[in-house]
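Handout, page 2. Input:
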Amino acid sequence: MSNFDFDLFIIGAGSGGVRAARIAGAYGARVAVAEEHRVGGTCVIRGCVPKKLLVYGSHFAEDLDDAAMFGWDVPEKRFDWAVLRDNVLGEVSRLEGLYGETLGNHDVQVFKDRAVITGPNQIRLGSGRTMTAGKILVAVGARPALPDVPGVEHAITSNEVFHLERMPRRVVIAGGGYIANEFAGIFHQFGAHVTLVNRSDTILRGYDEQIVDRLVKISIAKGIDMRFNSAFSAIDKQEDGSLICRMNGCDDIIADEVLFAIGRTPNTEGLGLQEAGVKLSDNGAIIVDDEYRSSVPTIFAVGDVTDRIQLTPVAIREGQAFADTQFGGKKIRVDYGCVPSSVFSHPPIAAVGLTEGQAKNRLGTVRTYTSDFRPMKNVLAGRNERSLYKLVVDDGSDEVVGVHLIGPDAPEIMQAAAIAVKARLKKADFDATVALHPTMAEELVLMR
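Output:
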């Protein structure tokens, strides 16, 4: 036993912190976690889990319309936001409890308090209590960024969406990333008029241009307004509660809610990091090496606070690798290549590997294969929306280096496709695989 109060003290009980705590505890380490908000972090409490439940709820808007062509009589279609909101928040509370049980089952001591680093091995809680630890892991995540615009206090972020008292009739969403596009689809399907404002002419940077172009066309066809090369100069609140967005680059916009989804900022302020000697990047992220060690040898960091790849599964892998390496005697490294990702837009996008442009820049000569089709369900429902699947192949090796999809269930299909890309399978392997018919996924092995 060391002379420290704990072998490991973790600040932040999100996905990465909880995984690190659980694994380190299983190795016999004395572990404590400080969480000033709720156990579960962004993903469980105010991120991907509740958002995905809203996505599920929003899909019923079109499903109920389509049902008639499949013989179902749905005499009335009425949406009650309060019912969905409260059910989602109830599920979040249930999951929070499960996360707490997981920590308890591994003898992890949880302090529901803010923690500040006061030295290489010392932490002070908001209550004033000071403790020591052999290693400190910072896993505090990130928060939605807000612009310096007059009236920005009248706007909301993705944190507040899940608590809205009522569904707004008019929503302006600022941003071009996955969060902005996901909430654009959600609000639209719930009956709101959505205007998506982006300061450049490109959305979803890093995704294949052909796939993104398809999403833009489908979104506009559905009735989502898109304003490119536009920025906010001010937000004015009117006596009736409505908001006037004063714009540069486009006409002013009247809204009931304004949602900013313009990026996320690492939560490093006020943690005592710089005072302890921890080096931060220009945007406040903790700089770490391949073992997640900061510039202070006893202080580590994983997840969004390091601003590498801001995805929950990546934070979990990092937390696991940290605990395995530091307490399990294993030297584990996370492979950041071929990380699949998705945008739960309407319809969703999924991708793994290189885009066509990236592959050309890196490999030289590439081949691309596409399947542009209308899903069987859309055909019978009389819906003209088309899906697009794309393979990017290294012409020299025949390896499939990228898979890009837009269409129903694209993220579900992508998980299996990501295994193929990770395994460096060739286009010939795809061609040799018998199709599973009738499915949308069979298009992956039928492209010639």
